[in-house]
Amino acid sequence: MRKRLSEVLSLTTTRRKRVTMKDIAEKLNLSINAVSLALNDKVGVSEETRKLVIKTAEEMGYFEENPSFLSKSHLKNICLIIEERNFKDTNFYTKVIWGIENEAKANGYDVLVNFMKKDLFEIPSCIENRKVSGILVVGTIKDEFLAEILSYNIPTVLVDHASFMFSTDAVLTQNIPGSYRGTKYLIEKGHKKIGFFGEKDFSLSFRERWLGFKEAMRDAGLPVNEDYCVTEDVERHVLSKNYEEVANRLKKLKEFPTAWVCSNDSNAITLYNALNIMGIKVPKDVSIVGFDDIDMCNIVTPPLTTIHINKELMGIKAVKRLLWRMDNPKEFHDHIRMEVGFVERQSVRELL
Prior knowledge:
CATH topology of the largest domain: Rossmann fold
Protein name: LacI family DNA-binding transcriptional regulator
CATH class of the largest domain: Alpha Beta
Keywords: DNA-binding, Repressor, Transcription, Transcription regulation
InterPro entries: HTH_LacI (IPR000843), LacI/GalR-like_sensor (IPR046335), Lambda_DNA-bd_dom_sf (IPR010982), Peripla_BP_I (IPR028082)
Pfam family, one: Peripla_BP_3
Largest sheet: 6 strands, parallel
Helix content: 40-55%
CATH architecture of the largest domain: 3-Layer(aba) Sandwich
Mean pLDDT: 90
Order of helices and strands: HHHHHEHHEHEHEEHEHHHEHEEHEE
Number of domains: 3
Low-confidence stretches: 1-6, 11-16
GO molecular function: DNA-binding transcription factor activity; transcription cis-regulatory region binding
Number of helices: 15
Shape: elongated
CATH superfamily of the largest domain: Response regulator
Strand content: 5-15%
Structural class: alpha/beta
């Protein structure tokens, strides 16, 4: 059942007295053995009783007082939650998930993948029924949805996202240094009129890449000309591959830059297609730098210069952090940043 954000927040912060199996048994008029069987997912009790025990244990705060209960049990499952459109967009998250599944398998865990809609979130049954030891949230998620997840007090790690409202472990990319490097490369190639293409408030990663772009321009003594930038209401056209609409947006610019830094490779490839509709050639007429280094970077013409992320390693690091969190539930949360690399291809023209 869905809860209001205020209700969920209270669940994550309210202190309760220590609850035991005996307390649960007395409340439900069951034996301690029956409660133990239900909580440990063993035969000997009906499914209806099992669900009732789990629900009551949660309401009484049993799992909050026993945060390592699931991680130390036989439940060798990890719940992976990802927004459906993010998974379908590119192979970026596909490779992250490969890394997650391989590392989980190496440690004896199965991964249960759950897709969510952008504005419709339901707690996966594997979480609701306490059948997982840990949770990985891959990509962006609204804080109100994250609050519902955290209310179950199951070890959770965010992947390619972080929350400013809740203290959680996260595995992220060095977005600012990466975008800074891509922008600096264009400047070194003689470009001064540089724009940014990508919805800067779509995700934390995009916001940080926008900041890295601005920082590189500032350090080079170059102005950030908003007339060169497309930073609002564009991601829906990128996700739907509506190149005509993007071309229409570009036609409204007062002036074109000589180069664009893009929030990711999907935006860069969308830009390729929109410019092609307009008869503008890359890199003859305009240069482009992407971010992520997805497989399409080598397929498009010309091949895209971009910032490289080891996506499988991101997934591996996420699982390692989750397993560590299971064993260290009281330690401080941390944000782990993935190093990035630079891949020079053929999408940038030298102006010197």
